[in-house]
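Structure (tokenized):
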């Protein structure tokens, strides 16, 4: 019985299928990148051809090499010449530390600063301006750092890397509340670095010492050619020992 019922149902399905009118194929017309597809008994479907993606121009930044001198201090100058210029400018010359310090600058940099000189084989290969930010309002010193960063960005482009170092609380205090309590306590620091043609520039803000809560803004310039040449010669010397 199930076989007869199945056969009857199959014959009924075939007859119903044959009774349906033939389905007409959709028609499409394209004009000016717009395609209109029509199907009998249905609303037309309008589609637009995808527009080609315009290539995005890569971001470009100034390609400026490290200057031959900064703050009046010339890279490659004999250290004796720099010492004489520092004293002639009315500044003290301090050799009590690892590197000599001129207690001033030989040219205006916009801030009162001492200048620490890195010496490679008797000549200047690095210059660090030490801006003491002992008192004053934190907001003013943050603006000073931002102005220095802005000046460097205009000349050398965006920093290669920059960071507010510290835990989440300290980063929030600096970025959102704009206070430097964590820097003054030695729990945070600010750093930005530019790797450029011929050298590197590093800007940092740290606590000035473990004993106090004063701030030190340090802006350093390093001449890559002089430093690498000394490192190469030192390596060659060690190989012959």
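Design, position by position:
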């Amino acid at each position: 019985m199930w076989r007869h019922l199945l056969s009857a149902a199959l014959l009924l399905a075939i007859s119903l299928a044959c009774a349906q009118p033939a389905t007409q194929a959709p028609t499409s017309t394209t004009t000016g990148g717009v395609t209109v597809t029509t199907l009998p008994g249905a609303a037309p479907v309008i589609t637009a051809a995808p527009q080609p993606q315009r290539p995005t121009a890569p971001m470009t930044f100034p390609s400026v090499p490290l200057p031959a001198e900064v703050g009046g201090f010339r890279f490659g100058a004999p250290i004796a010449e720099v010492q004489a210029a520092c004293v002639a400018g009315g500044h003290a010359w301090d050799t009590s530390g690892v590197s000599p310090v001129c207690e001033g600058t030989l040219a205006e940099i916009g801030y009162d600063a001492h200048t620490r000189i890195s010496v490679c084989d008797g000549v200047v290969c690095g210059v660090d301006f030490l801006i003491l930010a002992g008192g004053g309002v934190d907001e003013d010193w943050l603006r000073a750092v931002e102005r220095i960063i802005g000046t460097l960005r205009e000349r050398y482009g965006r920093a290669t890397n920059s960071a507010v170092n510290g835990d989440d609380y300290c980063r929030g205090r600096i970025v959102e509340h704009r206070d430097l309590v964590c820097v003054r306590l030695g729990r945070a620091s600010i750093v930005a670095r530019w790797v450029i043609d011929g050298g590197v520039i590093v800007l940092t803000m740290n606590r000035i010492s473990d004993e106090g809560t004063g701030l030190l803004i340090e802006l350093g310039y390093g001449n890559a050619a002089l430093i690498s040449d000394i490192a190469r010669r030192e390596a060659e010397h060690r190989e012959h020992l």
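Reviewer-requested clarification: DSSP finds six helices and 13 strands in the chain. Confidence is low (pLDDT under 50) at residues 1-20.
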